[in-house]
Amino acid sequence: MENRYKILAVDDEKFNLLLLESCLQSESCDLVTCNDALKAFSEFKKADFDVILLDILMDGIDGFEVRQLIRSRNKKIPIIFLTSLLDDINSTLVNRITADQYSYYLNKSFNKKTLIEKIEQAVQTYRESAAANGFLQKIESDLALAGEVQRLVLPNWCQINDQLISSFLYEPNFKVSGDIFEFYRIADGRHLVVLGDIAGHGVQAALYMMALQAFLKMLLAEIAPEELQVHQVMNRINEFVRNDLNGESYMTCMVALFDFRRNHLTFHNAGHPGLICCSPSRGEAREISADGRGSIPIGWSRDLPYKEEDNIDFDFEDDSIFISYTDGLLDLSKPNAPEEVIEEKNFRELLGALAAESNVVSIPFRLRSVIDQIGFSESPDDVFIMALQKNCAIPTVCFRQLQPTTNSISAGVLEFCNFVQHHTGDEELGTRIELLLSEFLNNVVLHGLVNAKRGKAVIAVRLEVQEEKIVISAMDRGREWEDVPAFNVHTARQQLEELNANRATSGRGLAIITSIAESIRRKHYRGLNETVFIIRR
Asked: How many CB atoms lie within 10 A of CB 303?
């Protein structure tokens, strides 16, 4: 043997063990012998063996039962069955042995050369498989790290400011994605959105994505607000792809400029899926008509410029919700039936219903979740969904984005408390809201977001003062909590205390929450935790 092996031999006949020792004594191996199956399993648990030589017929338990015990600890260590049993015409014995792909068969009439060759074959196959698995695990680890780096160059998953409310779901098909997304607030109050889908998958598309994200940040920082036009942004991106990336790839792309002061949108579409406008008041969703305008994907040609006459202008209502996505969303299919994808009519109906009953922050996650729920769960491509809406000043609604820090949480909680007191004139109710939000949000930060990247981890909170109640919706992208069905105050305490005990927190905080809220509902939508509290006035 060229390499040194650690071998465990198991046989209840001493002669057979002596025979194995004689064959292997001059070889580069450490042989451990056992004449009892249970003692052999005990030895197996103590050391790392390279191969096991195992008899089939033994007193107590047979070799197949020993294999089952071994497989409970190690699924792949090679096992060579040594037996003098005669097989039948149907090869029942051999089939039973080789039903486990890491098991081998050798008749006890072997000679030394045959035994060593079988051991060499089994161990080398095992080691090569282990090395390959280690290499694949390293690749997966590197890809996971690359995926985390990609997320760092993206905007926050949620954006709430004085003019808009927006969120997006970014879901790589495997670890890394070729979808690009940039969100930029211009000095004059307008907002620019760039969305692209790079051709191909995997590492190559992800590398292009990183280069383009970096380029977009530099480009948008250097363009003067008065000179910013969507078709010119397209031309600059195309120049970068053709010149700096050598035109080796291409992408569909959409550049949109939102002006919420005038409720006006200008966008340019280069082969990308259409932009959808939802009306929450009517429960409708429709694709904005391009009237035959549009351009070829970025990177196809350096000689065909993107022109102003291909820009699309659209005036919208205050409550309009815009949905943009990459084609991976509509490529979702049913398991084992890749040709069965969701129909666009059904897709728009789902969107219209979600727009009517959901806040804009949760829409991308609820949409992806419901598509999965109705059976379209196989994903051949990266998926990206963005929802965006004008932040209209509704007197009875306070919608805020909080950082997971003590100062941000404290300031946000105080603002919600003052908001409730101002609109209800009830100081005691404001104090109850302050206590509930303080306890809950700090619990989210301590347990749900404990491993989240601080720069990207935000919590969105929406509070609405209604005639008879206060409705609070808190959304975070931290660790998934167990789904808690809607319940009233009588059952809430027990269920939340059970969750609380699982997280090793004190009972005081959640006891306060359940004593204040009339009902609590917590749901998880494809990476988004949403908790809704109802507090009676």
From this structure: 6
